[in-house]
Amino acid sequence: MFQRVLIANRGEIAVRVIRACRELGIESVAVYSDADRRALHVHKADFAEHIGPSPATDSYLNIPRILEAARRSRAQAIHPGYGFLSENAGFARACREAGIVFVGPSPESMEMMGSKTRARQTVQRAGVPCVPGTDSALSGTAEALAIAESIGYPVMLKAAAGGGGKGMRLVASAAELPSAFEAAQSEAQRAFGDSEVYIEKFIANPRHVEVQVFGDAQGNVVYFGERECSVQRRHQKVLEEAPCSFLNADLRRRMGEVAVRAARAAQYCNAGTIEFLVDADHNFYFLEMNTRLQVEHPVTEQVTGTDLVQLQLRVASGEPLPFRQEDIALRGHAIELRVYAEDPENNFFPSPGCITRLLEPSGPGIRLDSGIYEGWVVPLHYDPLLAKLIAYGTDRRQVIERLHRALDEYFVGGIQTNLPLFRRILQHPDFESARVDTGFLERLLNGSPPRLKSAGPAEPIAPSESSASRDGTARLAPIAALAAAIFGQQPSERSTAQSSPSETASATGNQSHDDASHISAWKAAARREGVRR
After folding, report:
1. CA-to-CA distance for 257 and 26, rounded, in angstroms?
2. CATH superfamily of 207-466
3. Residues with catalytic roles
4. What is the mean pLDDT of the chain?
5. Architecture of domain 4-103 in CATH?
6. pLDDT tens digits, residue range 127-159?
7. At what angle do helices 396-409 and 513-529 cross, to 10 degrees?
8. Is 374 helix (H, G, I), strand (E, B) or coil?
9. 289: part of which helix (H) or strand (E)?
10. For the chain, domain boundaries
11. Distance of CA 412 to CAs 336, 359, 416, Å?
12. Rounded distance, CA 354 to CA 444, Å?
């Protein structure tokens, strides 16, 4: 096992890897830019190395500086987290050439699966079903028109090197295709430095379901069940859960076996994800492979009882997988909410700034993977993900109720967050009944009515007494603003840090039961309304 690992990332994922290292007795090395000098991951790590100015191109995406930081700190391995350089084959190769272990797949596997067109070619040879379309980049508009005519409109143009919705265009007719093709190429070139675009048949209202796979250097590959990732905005995941309520045991097994087949075709080692589109008739099609640890890995950890980050480190050090496929079982249900510093009421505009007040949820079944603290300034230079709120329970209903309770406890002051959006999602009849697809969130934001019927095994969840109570709290809205204002004037934890526990208790514990209930009600109402000072 490694003695020291450098984490080439920031925020909550850097903190997550640091914690896994600590439990394994591995020393951790954080890297930071000028903007992250006081970030939480820097405080949590055993060592920290400065890697440059605030722009990511000068710091977190600068391979020479990260490798130099690894040399200075004498790190034996580098964990890339997700994003930044995590799927950069050149970085993985540079680590290997420098004698540093890259905690992830080989650069050859990354190159094979990183290009969407090469990935399609690879998995089709292994018998993996794919969405009808091209397996290589389009040569120009004429070829795009011919193929679109053969597979039928609507079609989707996609960047071969893409991800996160960049370089994608939905085309409904031949008249739209030339301009869409040019726009997709241009955006792909700007985002990925590669203008290659391919075409696929557009599948209306599919579910986005991904399977977690894991391989080791000895050639073993297993799958850890699936994740439902259909709640998306502009092709970016917002909420994920495991398992997927739309899948029965047979479909889950078949998708898992196909995912393993795809991973074997790429000679894959370490953590990876095979993503599928699933239509209303339970047909599934390969979408892409993510050659890294996913943002949403915690829901899989919760339902399998496996620490995937620790497993990454063990496998990267040469250990074989400690179990076989038949040893992996799913228990309970888990849902993750991605908490962003953005304003849902202002077209999700980023909201950097100082966190003036922070109250975090806890209690039974609640996990919070966070990279923030009270008093920290959220920078403008990076992705606005602040934390991931995860709930686990025996079934989906219990998990939803726990998330409602956790959201009532969660307060981030000084900046805007998307926490109010999750309250809307969790109360929506389609979500409560697990009737979601990739168009669900867009319909919710546009005010479309709930769907009354949907294919699939999920049964409607009758409104519970607590959900009826939540709906009833709308009557508290008129006093929510006053509540938030009073709450915001309370002394911060920093100003009372010198107080003893007994002093704090005496200052807050002498109110009557009725007063306490009243205060709790209006504070909760204020948080639900998303009011900020």
Report:
1. 34
2. ATP-grasp fold, B domain (3.30.470.20)
3. 292
4. 88
5. 3-Layer(aba) Sandwich (3.40)
6. 999 999 998 899 999 999 999 999 999 999 999
7. 100
8. coil
9. strand 284-290
10. 4-103, 132-201, 207-466, 471-529
11. 18, 7, 8
12. 30
Quickly tell me which residue has 């959006």 as its tokens: 421
**pTM to 2 decimal places:** 0.84
**Among residues of the chain, what percentage have pLDDT more than 90?**
78
370-400 pLDDT per residue, tens: 999 999 999 999 999 999 999 999 999 999 9
For the stretch 175-203, what's the b/e string if a residue is b when 16 or more beta carbons lie within 10 angstroms of its beta carbon? ebbeebbeebbebbbebbebbbbbbbbbb
Q: Are 449 and 435 in contact (CB under 8 A)?
A: no
164: left (phi over 0), alpha (psi -120 to 50) or beta: left
Q: Is the pLDDT of residue 469 over 70?
A: no
Backbone conformation region of residue 275, classed left if phi is above 0, alpha if psi is from -120 to 50, else beta: beta
4-103 and 132-201 agree in CATH topology: no
Spelled out in words, what is the top-level CATH class assigned to the domain 132-201?
alpha beta
Where does the pLDDT of residue 459 fall: very low under 50, low under 70, confident under 90, or very high at 90 and above? very low
pLDDT tens-digit profile of 213-252?
Answer: 999 999 999 999 999 999 999 889 999 999 999 999 999 9
Query: Poorest-confidence range of 98-107, 181-190, 478-487?
Result: 478-487
d(CA 293, CA 272): 6
d(CA 289, CA 163) in angstroms, rounded, equals: 10
CA angle 257, 261, 267 (to 5 degrees): 140
Give the span between the Cα atoms of 464 and 427, in whole angstroms. 11
Convert 268-288 to b/e letters by CB count within 10 Å (16 or more is b): bbbbbbbbbbbbeebebbbbb
What are the angstrom distances between the C-alpha of 381 and each of 38, 164, 341, 342, 351?
Answer: 15, 18, 12, 14, 11
